[in-house]
Protein backbone atom coordinates (compact mmCIF):
# COMPACT_ATOMS: atom_id res chain seq x y z
CA UNK A 1 0.00 0.00 0.00
CA UNK A 2 2.84 2.41 0.79
CA UNK A 3 4.30 1.76 -2.67
CA UNK A 4 0.92 2.50 -4.26
CA UNK A 5 0.78 5.86 -2.48
CA UNK A 6 4.37 6.50 -3.60
CA UNK A 7 3.43 5.97 -7.23
CA UNK A 8 0.35 8.17 -6.95
CA UNK A 9 2.40 10.80 -5.11
CA UNK A 10 4.85 10.95 -8.01
CA UNK A 11 1.95 11.45 -10.39
CA UNK A 12 0.51 14.29 -8.33
CA UNK A 13 3.93 15.85 -7.80
CA UNK A 14 4.40 16.48 -11.50
CA UNK A 15 1.92 19.35 -11.35
CA UNK A 16 4.42 21.33 -9.27
CA UNK A 17 7.04 21.17 -12.03
CA UNK A 18 4.79 21.87 -15.01
CA UNK A 19 5.63 25.10 -16.84
CA UNK A 20 2.26 25.24 -18.64
CA UNK A 21 -1.11 23.62 -18.09
CA UNK A 22 -0.88 19.82 -18.43
CA UNK A 23 -2.91 17.90 -21.00
CA UNK A 24 -4.76 14.62 -20.46
CA UNK A 25 -5.53 11.69 -22.68
CA UNK A 26 -6.24 8.02 -23.27
CA UNK A 27 -3.96 5.30 -24.64
CA UNK A 28 -4.33 1.62 -25.50
CA UNK A 29 -2.48 -1.07 -27.37
CA UNK A 30 -0.85 -4.49 -27.38
CA UNK A 31 1.65 -6.03 -24.95
CA UNK A 32 4.10 -8.70 -26.10
CA UNK A 33 5.29 -10.01 -22.75
CA UNK A 34 7.71 -12.68 -21.61
CA UNK A 35 9.38 -13.88 -18.42
CA UNK A 36 13.13 -14.23 -17.99
CA UNK A 37 14.73 -17.69 -17.75
CA UNK A 38 15.38 -19.97 -14.75
CA UNK A 39 12.38 -22.26 -14.77
CA UNK A 40 10.80 -20.51 -17.75
CA UNK A 41 13.39 -21.53 -20.36
CA UNK A 42 10.76 -23.09 -22.64
CA UNK A 43 8.28 -20.24 -22.34
CA UNK A 44 7.34 -17.99 -25.23
CA UNK A 45 5.98 -14.47 -25.54
CA UNK A 46 2.29 -13.87 -24.92
CA UNK A 47 0.11 -11.15 -26.39
CA UNK A 48 -2.04 -9.05 -24.08
CA UNK A 49 -3.84 -5.72 -23.81
CA UNK A 50 -3.00 -2.49 -22.09
CA UNK A 51 -5.05 0.65 -21.72
CA UNK A 52 -5.55 3.62 -19.45
CA UNK A 53 -5.07 7.34 -18.95
CA UNK A 54 -2.12 9.73 -18.98
CA UNK A 55 -1.18 13.29 -18.14
CA UNK A 56 1.49 15.17 -20.06
CA UNK A 57 3.06 18.10 -18.20
CA UNK A 58 5.54 20.26 -20.17
CA UNK A 59 8.69 21.22 -18.27
CA UNK A 60 10.15 23.30 -21.13
CA UNK A 61 9.80 23.56 -24.90
CA UNK A 62 11.55 20.22 -25.41
CA UNK A 63 11.06 18.32 -22.14
CA UNK A 64 7.92 17.00 -20.48
CA UNK A 65 6.92 14.43 -17.89
CA UNK A 66 4.13 11.95 -18.52
CA UNK A 67 2.69 9.86 -15.69
CA UNK A 68 0.24 7.15 -16.68
CA UNK A 69 -2.15 4.74 -14.98
CA UNK A 70 -2.67 1.60 -17.06
CA UNK A 71 -4.29 -1.81 -16.85
CA UNK A 72 -1.66 -4.14 -18.32
CA UNK A 73 -1.86 -7.87 -19.15
CA UNK A 74 1.51 -9.64 -18.85
CA UNK A 75 2.71 -13.24 -18.51
CA UNK A 76 3.94 -15.95 -20.86
CA UNK A 77 2.89 -19.16 -22.55
CA UNK A 78 4.39 -22.61 -22.99
CA UNK A 79 3.64 -25.08 -25.80
CA UNK A 80 4.83 -28.68 -25.58
CA UNK A 81 4.28 -31.27 -28.29
CA UNK A 82 4.83 -35.04 -28.23
CA UNK A 83 4.49 -37.30 -31.27
CA UNK A 84 4.62 -41.08 -31.38
CA UNK A 85 3.13 -44.24 -32.87
CA UNK A 86 0.88 -46.62 -30.90
CA UNK A 87 -0.50 -49.80 -32.55
CA UNK A 88 0.06 -48.30 -35.97
CA UNK A 89 -1.67 -45.03 -35.10
CA UNK A 90 0.14 -41.69 -35.13
CA UNK A 91 -0.49 -39.90 -31.85
CA UNK A 92 0.14 -36.16 -31.57
CA UNK A 93 -0.25 -34.72 -28.07
CA UNK A 94 -0.06 -30.97 -27.51
CA UNK A 95 -0.10 -29.05 -24.24
CA UNK A 96 -0.66 -25.29 -24.19
CA UNK A 97 -0.20 -23.50 -20.87
CA UNK A 98 -0.67 -19.80 -20.19
CA UNK A 99 0.36 -17.70 -17.23
CA UNK A 100 -1.73 -14.52 -17.10
CA UNK A 101 -0.42 -11.76 -14.82
CA UNK A 102 -2.56 -8.60 -14.77
CA UNK A 103 -1.23 -5.38 -13.23
CA UNK A 104 -2.21 -1.81 -12.57
CA UNK A 105 0.95 -0.03 -13.73
CA UNK A 106 2.08 3.54 -13.08
CA UNK A 107 4.82 4.55 -15.56
CA UNK A 108 6.50 7.94 -15.03
CA UNK A 109 8.01 8.83 -18.40
CA UNK A 110 10.40 11.73 -19.03
CA UNK A 111 10.03 12.78 -22.65
CA UNK A 112 12.36 14.67 -24.98
CA UNK A 113 10.99 16.20 -28.18
CA UNK A 114 13.58 15.64 -30.90
CA UNK A 115 11.20 17.34 -33.35
CA UNK A 116 7.76 18.92 -32.84
CA UNK A 117 6.18 15.51 -33.60
CA UNK A 118 8.82 12.91 -32.66
CA UNK A 119 9.91 12.20 -29.08
CA UNK A 120 12.02 9.84 -27.00
CA UNK A 121 11.10 8.73 -23.48
CA UNK A 122 12.49 6.90 -20.48
CA UNK A 123 11.53 6.41 -16.85
CA UNK A 124 10.48 4.02 -14.07
CA UNK A 125 7.34 1.92 -13.98
CA UNK A 126 5.60 0.72 -10.81
CA UNK A 127 3.23 -2.25 -11.04
CA UNK A 128 0.62 -3.64 -8.63
CA UNK A 129 -0.61 -7.20 -9.23
CA UNK A 130 -4.40 -7.53 -9.43
CA UNK A 131 -4.74 -11.03 -10.90
CA UNK A 132 -2.61 -14.13 -11.53
CA UNK A 133 -4.12 -17.16 -13.24
CA UNK A 134 -2.89 -20.27 -15.03
CA UNK A 135 -4.76 -22.11 -17.78
CA UNK A 136 -3.98 -25.39 -19.58
CA UNK A 137 -5.34 -26.75 -22.86
CA UNK A 138 -4.44 -30.38 -23.71
CA UNK A 139 -5.17 -31.69 -27.22
CA UNK A 140 -4.80 -35.25 -28.54
CA UNK A 141 -4.74 -35.85 -32.31
CA UNK A 142 -4.88 -39.41 -33.73
CA UNK A 143 -4.05 -39.90 -37.41
CA UNK A 144 -4.71 -36.22 -38.10
CA UNK A 145 -8.09 -36.04 -36.35
CA UNK A 146 -8.63 -34.41 -32.96
CA UNK A 147 -10.02 -37.04 -30.62
CA UNK A 148 -9.84 -35.23 -27.31
CA UNK A 149 -9.36 -31.66 -26.06
CA UNK A 150 -9.34 -30.93 -22.36
CA UNK A 151 -9.38 -27.35 -21.09
CA UNK A 152 -8.64 -26.75 -17.43
CA UNK A 153 -10.43 -23.75 -15.96
CA UNK A 154 -8.26 -20.83 -14.92
CA UNK A 155 -6.61 -21.42 -11.56
CA UNK A 156 -6.10 -18.48 -9.22
CA UNK A 157 -2.41 -18.45 -8.21
CA UNK A 158 -2.10 -14.83 -7.10
CA UNK A 159 -0.77 -15.85 -3.67
CA UNK A 160 2.37 -17.25 -5.33
CA UNK A 161 3.44 -13.98 -6.96
CA UNK A 162 4.81 -10.66 -5.77
CA UNK A 163 2.16 -8.00 -5.36
CA UNK A 164 4.63 -5.26 -6.40
CA UNK A 165 6.63 -5.01 -9.59
CA UNK A 166 9.12 -2.38 -10.72
CA UNK A 167 10.84 -1.83 -14.03
CA UNK A 168 12.31 0.76 -16.37
CA UNK A 169 10.84 1.82 -19.69
CA UNK A 170 12.53 3.11 -22.83
CA UNK A 171 10.51 4.18 -25.85
CA UNK A 172 9.67 6.56 -28.63
CA UNK A 173 6.58 8.08 -30.16
CA UNK A 174 5.22 10.11 -33.03
CA UNK A 175 2.27 12.51 -32.94
CA UNK A 176 0.36 12.57 -36.22
CA UNK A 177 -1.72 15.54 -35.04
CA UNK A 178 -2.16 17.49 -31.81
CA UNK A 179 -4.58 14.78 -30.66
CA UNK A 180 -3.50 11.44 -32.16
CA UNK A 181 -0.20 9.62 -31.80
CA UNK A 182 1.57 6.25 -31.81
CA UNK A 183 3.97 4.97 -29.18
CA UNK A 184 6.33 2.00 -28.74
CA UNK A 185 8.03 1.12 -25.46
CA UNK A 186 10.12 -1.66 -23.94
CA UNK A 187 9.86 -2.24 -20.19
CA UNK A 188 12.53 -4.33 -18.45
CA UNK A 189 11.54 -5.66 -15.03
CA UNK A 190 13.71 -5.33 -11.93
CA UNK A 191 11.53 -7.37 -9.55
CA UNK A 192 11.45 -11.14 -9.08
CA UNK A 193 7.79 -11.96 -9.82
CA UNK A 194 7.85 -14.95 -7.43
CA UNK A 195 7.29 -14.50 -3.71
CA UNK A 196 10.04 -15.55 -1.35
CA UNK A 197 9.72 -18.64 0.85
CA UNK A 198 8.58 -16.48 3.77
CA UNK A 199 5.74 -15.05 1.67
CA UNK A 200 7.28 -11.60 1.13
CA UNK A 201 7.60 -9.97 -2.29
CA UNK A 202 10.49 -10.85 -4.55
CA UNK A 203 13.68 -8.81 -4.54
CA UNK A 204 13.85 -5.61 -6.62
CA UNK A 205 17.34 -4.94 -7.95
CA UNK A 206 19.17 -3.87 -11.09
CA UNK A 207 21.40 -6.94 -10.62
CA UNK A 208 20.01 -10.36 -11.48
CA UNK A 209 22.00 -12.39 -8.94
CA UNK A 210 18.97 -13.29 -6.82
CA UNK A 211 16.14 -12.34 -9.20
CA UNK A 212 15.14 -15.54 -10.94
CA UNK A 213 12.17 -14.37 -13.00
CA UNK A 214 11.27 -10.90 -14.26
CA UNK A 215 8.61 -9.43 -16.50
CA UNK A 216 9.80 -8.10 -19.86
CA UNK A 217 7.34 -6.29 -22.10
CA UNK A 218 7.24 -4.68 -25.51
CA UNK A 219 4.29 -2.33 -26.00
CA UNK A 220 2.90 -0.62 -29.07
CA UNK A 221 -0.28 1.39 -29.21
CA UNK A 222 -2.19 4.57 -29.98
CA UNK A 223 -2.90 7.61 -27.88
CA UNK A 224 -5.55 10.32 -27.93
CA UNK A 225 -4.95 13.66 -26.22
CA UNK A 226 -7.95 15.79 -25.22
List the defining traits of the structure above.
about 230 residues; elongated; mainly beta; 9 strands
Structural account:
With 226 residues, the protein is mainly beta. 5% of the residues lie in helices and 64% in strands. It is built from one helix and nine strands. The protein has one helix spanning 2-13; strands spanning 23-35, 46-58, 63-86, 89-113, 118-142, 145-156, 164-175, 180-189, 215-225. The radius of gyration is 21 Å and the shape is elongated.
At a glance:
The chain is mainly β. Helix content is 5%, strand content 64%. A hairpin with a 4-residue loop joins strand 7 (164-175) and strand 8.
Radius of gyration: 21 Å
| 3D shape | elongated
Number of strand elements: 9
What spatial order of strands do you see in the largest sheet? 1-2-3-4-5-7-8-9
Write the layout of secondary structure elements.
Blueprint: H1 2-13, E1 23-35, E2 46-58, E3 63-86, E4 89-113, E5 118-142, E6 145-156, E7 164-175, E8 180-189, E9 215-225
Antiparallel strand pairs: 1-2, 1-9, 2-3, 3-4, 4-5, 5-6, 5-7, 7-8, 8-9
Amino acid sequence: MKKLFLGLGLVAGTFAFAQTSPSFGLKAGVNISSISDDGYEDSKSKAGFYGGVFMNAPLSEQFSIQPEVLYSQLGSKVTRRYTGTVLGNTIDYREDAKLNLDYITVPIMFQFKATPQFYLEAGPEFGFLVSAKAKDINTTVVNGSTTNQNTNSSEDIKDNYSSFNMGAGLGLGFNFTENFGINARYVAGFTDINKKNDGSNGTTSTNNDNNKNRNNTFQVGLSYKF
